[in-house]
Automatic annotation (TrEMBL):
It comes from Blautia hansenii (Ruminococcus hansenii). Coiled coil: none annotated. One of its GO terms (molecular function) is monoatomic cation transmembrane transporter activity. Residues 1-117 form the RCK N-terminal domain. Residues 134-216 form the RCK C-terminal domain. This is Ktr system potassium uptake protein A. SUPFAM superfamilies: NAD(P)-binding Rossmann-fold domains (SSF51735), TrkA C-terminal domain-like (SSF116726). Pfam families: TrkA_C, TrkA_N. InterPro entries: NAD(P)-bd_dom_sf, RCK_C, RCK_C_sf, RCK_N, Trk_Ktr_HKT_K-transport. Transmembrane segments: none annotated.
Amino acid sequence: MKSVLLIGLGRFGRHMAAKLIEEGNEVLAIDSDEGRVNDAIDMVTDAQIGDATNEHFVESLGVGNFDLCVVAIGDNFQSSLETTALLKDMGARFVLARANRDVHAKFLLRNGADRIVYPEKEMAQRLAVKYGNDNIFDYIELTDEYAIYEIPAPESWIGSSIIEKDIRKKYNISILATKSQGKMNPLPHADYVFNHNETLIIMGHYRDVRAVTKLK
């Protein structure tokens, strides 16, 4: 369980707060809009109305006591930048800041953000990969080069085992799980035999995964 200070209760902030709570974390949510705070108060551990660009208010929050600080402000970049800088000045351990543009990300990183998230950009990229290719059912980016994909088992693999196909050495991918009829089989053994109508959860470099999706 982590203690999280989340600033900004717009759509992104509310969704993130809800998921953080669902995962068992404690969340103190802050917003300058009373209506947003009232709407979220039953959803989070605690919620306060306040201006996160005000030094005295931020100091009163005890920023250094939180494991994670999230700057989820999306409609006012100046406020987001000032809040990020204040959090770091007040001793925040880790600041995750939302950005809508690359130039915003650069300024946020220079002013104390430890990590940047692009909600719209990341979702758009994920959907483009998922729906732009008939052989990719889902996709989670890990780095600029590596990702986790859900793909159908290639026809040429059906009836053969993982070790027979020498998957890792020949194709440079790792099979994390297989899925059939909604049931997941995590970390299949080397003697696992591929079946019809199942999908594979694999991890690898984009280039290597693309090559596998083109197999017959």
